[in-house]
């Protein structure tokens, strides 16, 4: 995505979004609490914009009304005058208001999600923008968070966070849709406050990032085996359930049919056959997308000087929260 | 509920219902599997009726369309000619077909549910019909299942299972709505097969029940603290989350507000103040009912000879599954 040239010297705030999916209620709960009790969130001196991503879906406790808002931020869709779903109109509105080029611009986006998969407290990145990698490196160094680098997925794109030059998705689970759960909220809040602390420190000068960033890079997603009529013919193997982020070797169990037949993991051509790291195992909302889990490859990225420089330059343009 | 007199000598089948709530998909999955692969369910020689409780809601992956089907089986609603919600029409249809007085009668109802609460593999009973208590006693003896005796709740009534003279709700969790999870299915199937085995043994003669049945008897439900506008002012305390079936003393933590304030458990007048056993802690579907958890009292019921006699008499009228 082209972030334009005009905005490179503009100042802006940090966007914190909850309820991009209206039935992921932990982020919505936190936004409500932080609005009612501003003292309950340590802003580390930064000016925030707290926004409900999909207010109509949140009202209905549904993921979305007409289409997934978090697959609606693609340039093709946004620029199509005939595409007028509620979520597309909302995506345009969010960008017009708080995009990097918006009326009231934000330079960083933190998008709060939860999942029915046992992802723990984790981060999702959609690209390798240096400021994003730098911020993720700080969170991984301080909190040990695993990172799903969800890039180069031709089937899934149009993510909200990818529209900002520095962004994080904080993804916490397992928690059912529609449910507010204390530990999920606590984990989300810790990640938000650590990100704000890092941005504040970057704003004040250099910030130590460590020497490497461990990411789990997206390879491909796998659907359940299905009958001819599209109905599932097996379920996620009980030995795989809740094993997000744990290595799974070639031949490892993926699915179990009622008659006991096991579908094993078969590497595709070109994939080295040692180990894969599955993520988003049995996320309830992904059934309709034909995704029972996604396979990743664990990779270590060396931290470059450019990452910290990029984050620092961007953080210096962050507005302060003047009391 | 009056089960009538005419049916006492009729023969009938065992009704197994999944998807009474359309987004509790483990029971739906099992029904599909058992229909496709009848050999995958040990029927113990009994004729079954496998029924999707709320097919329209299941189609939409929603709990219900117009009203909760599992609160629609009250005599007042069923007999009200002006009450024509989809779920009321479906309740009447199920009773007309497979009620104890129906065209194709069933004598026992087993209703498969799942919950976002950490209830484990458990049973819910709505009354103390002797055949129901007897069947529950066998399952508790063989599988150790805890039992929520959900009786005398003026706010919640109209349950499907309560319309049959012998019934069980098999309630398994935690699992998110909309999700099929192998271990949840396995636990449900074990409970169903054990119930069918018990009915088959009762049909063949006496069945040993043990000397006592431990139940957790419903006392009352508790809602979240709420603001004047109805929005929640606190969440389930993280120290209570997932502690279903564990004793909670007076003064124990119920809810936690963002500012750290704790709502403690205060016994009501007439309640002895030692211990309560909470169940359905933070069930996602109960928010709209104003229920954050229910309190129970653990009680030991002595098994009486009448229970086994009642179950045996009923089981002798069960049709066999002739190959």
Supply database-style keywords.
homodimer, alpha/beta, 323 residues, three-stranded antiparallel beta sheet, 7 helices
Q: Radius of gyration of chain A, rounded? A: 20 Å
Helix content of chain A: 25-40%
State the secondary-structure class of chain A.
alpha/beta
How is the quaternary structure best described?
homodimer
Strand order of the largest sheet of chain A: 2-1-3-6-4-5-7-13-12-9
Strand content of chain A: 15-25%
- Quickly name the level 1 CATH class of the largest domain in chain A: Alpha Beta
- Largest interface, per-chain counts? A-B, 33 and 33 residues
Low-confidence residue ranges of chain A: 1-6
* Secondary structure tally, helices of chain A: 7
* Major sheet attributes of chain A: 10 strands, mixed
User: Looking at this structure, what is the CATH superfamily of the largest domain in chain A?
Assistant: Zn peptidases
CATH architecture label name of the largest domain in chain A:
3-Layer(aba) Sandwich
Quick structural overview:
Two copies of one chain form a homodimer. The first copy, chain A, is α/β, with parallel strands linked by helices. The first copy, chain A, has seven helices and 13 strands.
How would you characterize the overall build of this protein?
The structure is a homodimer of 323-residue chains. Residues 1-6 of chain A have low confidence and may be disordered. By secondary structure, chain A is of the alpha/beta class. Helix content of chain A is 26%, strand content 23%. In chain A, the strands form two sheets. Chain A has a ten-stranded mixed sheet. Chain A is globular. In chain A, helix 1 (25-36) packs across helix 6 and helix 6 (182-204) packs across helix 7. Chain A has helices at residues 25-36, 55-60, 75-78, 86-98, 130-143, 182-204, 305-315; strands at residues 13-18, 48-52, 106-114, 120-125, 147-149, 166-173, 212-222, 235-236, 248-249, 253-256, 262-264, 275-279, 293-302. In chain A, strand 10 and strand 11 form a beta hairpin. Chains A and B meet through helix 1, helix 6 and strand 8 of A and helix 1, helix 6 and strand 8 of B.
């Amino acid at each position: 995505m082209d972030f334009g040239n005009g905005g490179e010297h503009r100042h802006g705030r940090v966007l914190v979004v909850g309820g991009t999916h209206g039935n992921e209620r932990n982020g919505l709960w936190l936004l409500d609490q932080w609005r009612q009790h501003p003292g309950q969130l340590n802003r580390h001196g930064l000016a925030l914009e707290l926004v409900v991503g999909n207010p109509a879906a949140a009202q209905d406790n549904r993921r979305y009304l007409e289409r997934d808002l978090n697959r609606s931020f693609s340039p093709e869709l946004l620029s199509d005058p005939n595409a007028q779903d509620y979520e597309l109109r909302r995506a345009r509105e969010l960008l017009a208001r708080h995009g990097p080029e918006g009326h009231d611009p934000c330079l960083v986006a933190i998008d709060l999600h939860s999942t029915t998969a046992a992802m723990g407290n984790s981060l999702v990145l959609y690209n390798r923008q240096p400021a994003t990698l730098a911020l993720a490196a700080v969170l991984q160094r301080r909190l040990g968070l695993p990172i799903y680098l969800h890039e180069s997925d031709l089937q899934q794109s149009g993510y909200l966070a990818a529209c900002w030059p520095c962004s994080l998705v904080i993804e916490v689970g397992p928690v059912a849709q529609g449910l507010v759960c204390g530990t999920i909220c606590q984990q989300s809040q810790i990640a938000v406050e650590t990100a704000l602390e890092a941005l504040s420190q970057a704003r004040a000068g250099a910030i130590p990032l460590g020497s490497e960033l461990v990411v789990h890079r997206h390879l491909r997603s796998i659907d359940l085996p299905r009958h001819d009529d599209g109905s599932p013919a097996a379920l996620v193997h009980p030995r795989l359930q809740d094993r997000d982020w744990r290595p799974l070797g070639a031949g490892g169990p993926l699915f179990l049919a009622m008659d006991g037949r096991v579908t094993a993991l078969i590497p595709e051509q070109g994939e080295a056959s040692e180990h894969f790291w599955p993520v988003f195992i049995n996320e309830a909302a992904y059934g309709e997308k034909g995704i029972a889990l996604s396979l990743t490859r664990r990779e270590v990225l060396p931290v470059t000087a450019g990452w910290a420089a990029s984050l620092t330059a961007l953080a210096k343009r962050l507005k302060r929260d003047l009391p």
